[in-house]
TrEMBL record:
It is found in: Cytoplasm. GO terms for molecular function: exodeoxyribonuclease VII activity; nucleic acid binding. GO terms for cellular component: cytoplasm; exodeoxyribonuclease VII complex. InterPro entries: Exonuc_VII_L (IPR003753), Exonuc_VII_lsu_C (IPR020579), OB-fold_nuc-bd_dom (IPR025824). This is Exodeoxyribonuclease 7 large subunit. It comes from Formivibrio citricus. It catalyses: Exonucleolytic cleavage in either 5'- to 3'- or 3'- to 5'-direction to yield nucleoside 5'-phosphates. It holds the Pfam family tRNA_anti_2. It comes from the Bacteria. NCBIfam families: xseA. Belongs to the XseA family. Residues 126-436 form the Exonuclease VII large subunit C-terminal domain. Residues 10-102 form the OB-fold nucleic acid binding domain.
Length: 442
């Protein structure tokens, strides 16, 4: 629904704005197939062209940030698939497509097939690092699976001659592009494995479009590489190109030249290493000889006539004998001196006992006088306590005619109310007691 002014009349600008909004809201981002016509890339980086088919055409614009992501050069007549937003250029009222992505026609299906096969083989474990084999350090012969007319073959041979002249190389010729290329590549890999002539196999070809490299994305080639008894190095296309063969190979190189470098040792580096080791060996041998010569000189200096050695031993024996005779005397004198020092120290540290004995006599005199007094005091205190104890003796009142009355269990009756009618009680006198029965408590 477009918006109108109060008068029912809108401007051209407003009309085009509403038309653009309506188009962009009505159509989702979609893929459009067609043929490029009138392609132009301006200094600003923006690209303008027409996309057409047999029945119609539409203007297209691809802005700089999106055009910079193109991995191919669009040309007149190229059939492409464009991911586009349907829009309208308001300034001229032109219906157009704003292109988000662009690819050659048919690549969508190829990419889907590539991803589908990649997932399948990865699930089977063909890409697992655990099954990758190391390349031999010094291969006895190197096999190359490629086309005899391919530029990649020349690059590989040139690199091999540079790095390791005289390295045996066997070519297993095959087509690397075309309808039957995949079958031929797989057969060449199997042939190399059956003959057993080489111990490193390079599968390579030069760069190209995804269609040109498609033979190396076929399942038959991937399974032939996986089944190869020989370690395989893949060098297919340029550094940014990846194929299924790269994932299955034991080692992937970014280019055919790099594959040749990975498959062979560098002769110059080996010679430099050998020269370095030779210098180290020379230096080590020189040091060993010098060390042994020094030991020989030292041994020669130590070598003496037996008579000289016996004379020196005799002198040493005399000296030891003298020391042996003198040692007891020195030891005895040392012990005597030490004993005198200890005796002197004991004498100096002996305490003066005269005041102690005087204090002992004084305490003895005081003790002799204090003991009778202490005994008299204790005797007097004992007499006093005996009198007090006799005064509190429960038998004393009985001597004066009083009596104690107890229950049958021996507890005292303090009053007549403690007795019960018919209860047997005991009456205690000074010398004896009698039993009685309560007739009636008072």
């Amino acid at each position: 629904m477009y918006l109108s002014s109060p008068s029912g009349i809108i401007s051209v600008t407003e009309l085009n704005r509403q038309a653009r909004q309506l188009l962009e809201g009505a159509f989702p981002v979609l893929w459009v197939a067609g043929e490029i016509s009138g392609f132009k890339r301006y200094d600003s980086g923006h690209c303008y062209f027409t996309l057409k088919d047999a029945g119609a055409q539409v203007r297209c614009v691809m802005f700089r940030n999106r055009a910079a992501l193109l991995d191919f050069a669009p040309r007149e007549g190229t059939r492409v698939e464009a991911r586009a937003v349907v829009s309208l250029y308001e300034a001229r009222g032109d219906f157009q497509l704003t292109i988000e992505a662009l690819r050659p026609a048919g690549l969508g299906a190829l990419f889907e097939a590539f991803e589908r096969l990649k997932r399948k083989l990865e699930t089977e474990g063909l890409f697992s690092p655990a099954r990758k084999r190391p390349l031999p350090t010094f291969p006895r012969a190197i096999g190359i699976v490629t086309s005899p007319a391919a530029a990649a073959l020349r690059d590989v041979l040139t690199t091999l001659r540079r790095r390791m002249p005289g390295q045996p190389v066997i070519l297993y010729p095959t087509a690397v592009q075309g309808a039957d290329a995949a079958q031929q590549i797989a057969q060449a890999i199997r042939t190399a494995g059956e003959r057993g002539e080489v111990d490193t196999l390079i599968v390579c070809r030069g760069g190209g479009s995804i269609e040109d490299l498609w033979s190396f994305n076929e399942e038959i080639v991937a399974r032939a590489i996986a089944a190869s008894p020989i370690p395989v190095v893949s060098g297919i296309g340029h550094e940014t190109d990846f194929t299924i063969a790269d994932f299955v190979a034991d080692l992937r190189a970014p280019t055919p030249t790099a594959a040749a470098e990975l498959a062979t040792p560098d002769r110059n580096a080996l010679l430099a290493r050998l020269e370095h080791l030779r210098h180290r060996l020379d230096n080590t041998m020189t040091r060993q000889l010098q060390r042994h010569m020094q030991r020989l000189d030292l041994a020669a200096r130590r070598l003496q006539h037996p008579g000289e050695r016996l004379a020196r031993q005799r002198e040493r024996l005399v000296l030891l004998t003298q020391r042996l005779h003198a040692a007891p005397r020195r030891q005895l004198e040392t012990r005597r001196l030490k004993l005198d020092q200890v005796a002197l120290r004991l004498t100096q540290r002996r305490p003066d006992t005269t005041p102690l004995f005087a204090r002992q006599d004084a305490w003895r005199i005081r003790l002799a006088g204090a003991l009778p007094r202490q005994l008299e005091n204790q005797r007097h205190r004992l007499t006093t306590l005996a009198a007090r104890l006799h005064a509190h003796d429960p038998q004393s009142p009985l001597q004066r005619g009083y009596a104690l009355v107890t229950h049958a269990d021996g507890t005292l009756l303090h009053s007549a109310s403690d007795a019960h009618c018919g209860e047997e009680i005991t009456v205690h006198f000074a010398g004896d007691s009698l039993k009685a029965r309560v007739l009636a408590p008072r």
